[in-house]
Amino acid sequence: MGIVEIRNLTFKYANSDKPSLYDINLSINKGEFFLITGPTGCGKTTLCKCLNGLIPNSYHGDFSGEVIVDGLSTKEHPVYELAQHVGLVFQDPENELFCTSVEKEIAFGPENLGLPRDEIRKRVEEAMAMVGISHLRERSPYELSGGEQQKVAIAAILAMKPKILVLDEPTSNLDSLSAYSILNLLLNLKKEYEMTIILVEHRLEIVAKMVDRCAIMNEGRIIAIGDPREVLYSDIVESIGIGIPKIVKLAKRLKLSSRPLSSSELANILKVKK
Amino acid sequence: MIEFHNVFFSYQPDKEILKNINLKINKGELLAIIGPNGAGKTTLLKHINGLLKPQKGYVKVLGMNTKETTVATLARHVGFVFQNPDHQLFAETVEKEIMFALINFNFPEHEIKERVERILHELDLVKYRNKSPFVLSGGERKRVALASVLCYDPSILILDEPTIGQDYRQKLNLINLISKLNKEGKTVIIVTHDIEFVADFIPRCIIMSDGRIIADGPTEEVLTNSKLLLENSLLLPQLVEISLALDINPPTINFEKLCSIIKKIIEMKEL
Fold first, then answer.
1. Which chain B residue has the Cα nearest residue A263?
2. Of A25, A126, A193, B196, which is most buried with the most CB atoms under 10 A?
3. pLDDT digit string (tens) for A13-59?
4. pLDDT tens profile B198-256
């Protein structure tokens, strides 16, 4: 069984006339780096909210099927308990940050769990080290750049020690270099700490080569799932209008027999030595 | 039609944000300004609609010196769509939001109706007309902000980070709209971090860094200068990265051109 198991999940918001998710079935393995992408309004954010139990616990609507994270059914466990197993990072870090220093921000979650002082201190140190922001500890989150703020938001979630990290378009308000730095950080969390990472992201040209598997969503359904080399090179992806990496377009146009996802892979295929 | 002449500006003494900016933009141009955070891009834009006035030098817009012209007068000619739509949206419904500027500029009632209708269709907002802008998604709110400016038909359009929160298809819609407006004679200035968007669609590109303009020219020239881009913390366009990896010199941002170069490499090596 995967660390995340979704079975026949259908959800309709109370004020909506049709479901945002239709019959989703998905199994994600421990330690997997899993990418979800798709056009705006396809249900990605709703799916994220199902993963940490915000749906069905805090949103009204019709929920059917089952979501099991780290062995816990989200229907049967409260959000604060699920938060210690699965952490959710949102698009805009400004909406999540509110403390006067980075350290306090990161300590907030563990404090609310009522942990002993030493444990809190230890977790804050670890979380800052994991994302590489120990040098920012005394700064106010508001004077940091967008990329640094997003790292603080990620550290604040890591301090809850979740096994699963879910990120909903964490780079969409960032410039491309900061985005690159955040996405590399996620790859490192997977490699160094064996975290399971579920990432909703549009920057396929950066993440395609990092992830183990990806799923494409459209109109509330998963329409393709598998190795990014299979999925991104399939024709279905082009038809729903998502931003396919240029390397893929190029390889398809040139009718190459292999499927590169990075420029260095292409250089190898073409036997160009630098 | 827009001219910056030896422009200096600082918010605090001793910390100059714009350092001797010289810039000419002709009527009907479509151009992008890129550069790292804090380069002075937004400060420069605010000089075009007169929100900020130069401390040294001058800025002329359509022949008007911005120091001698009110923001209200300039606003009729210079439409500004901010990076964060929440900084400009405030009305109860999308429709009222769009009508606001039209009413303020004293357009006749029948024309207000007609313009609102047209712009709602053009930006795919018809289904939201009676909704509050604040229940919409970030990408949708951006389109509402754009609609509220486009409706009064300013001849200069300034877009600060228009592609944020837009997916690929919406970006294509956006560039189609921008190209259409540009063909109708509007001058369009875009500030963005989205280097792919610039590489694919925008003919002229300016790079700002540390308060100065450090490059200004055809996009194909500016964005293939990999050394300059990397020195200024800018990520290379995907096609430039591919060009470099394949040792193609000079690199290119043109997809078709790169395809034919690679075809030749394949033929030469008989792969």
1. B242
2. B196
3. 998 889 999 999 999 999 999 999 998 889 999 999 999 999 999 99
4. 999 999 999 999 999 999 999 999 999 999 999 988 889 999 999 999 999 999 999 99
Spatial distance between the Cα atoms of B204 and B218, rounded to a whole number of angstroms: 5
Nearest-angstrom CA–CA distance, B192 and B197: 9
Q: pTM for this one? A: 0.87
Give the SS3 label for residue B81. strand
Question: H or E element: which one contains A229?
Answer: helix A228-232
Q: For chain B, say whether A125 makes contact (Cβ under 8 Å).
A: no
Chain A residue with CA closest to B165: the answer is: A172
Q: What is the ipTM of this complex?
A: 0.84
- Cα gap B162→B143, rounded to integer Å: 9
pLDDT in tens, A130-164: 999 999 999 998 888 888 899 999 999 999 999 99
For residues A33 and A30, give the distance between their C-alpha atoms in angstroms, rounded to a whole number. 9
Question: Do residues B202 and B228 lie in contact, with contact meaning Cβ atoms separated by under 8 Å?
Answer: no
Residue in A148, A176, A207, A247 to test binding to B, most B beta-carbons within 10 Å:
A176
